[in-house]
Amino acid sequence: MARITIEIDESKATILRKKAAKFGLRPEQFVLATIEDLIVQPEADFKAAMKRVLSKNKELYERLA
Description:
Elements: H1 10-22, H2 27-40, H3 43-56, H4 58-64
């Protein structure tokens, strides 16, 4: 199994923890379930979602590069 590490700002981490808790999950489990849902979407839907995420987080990705 591969391990991928990401960094997010604390305000987003707080939101992530709260959303995960609503489903009785740890944040890591919530993120994994979300990623798995994205991956199994039909190709066109996945591409649209990926473009939306990349566009939304463009500044963050540029700072991390």
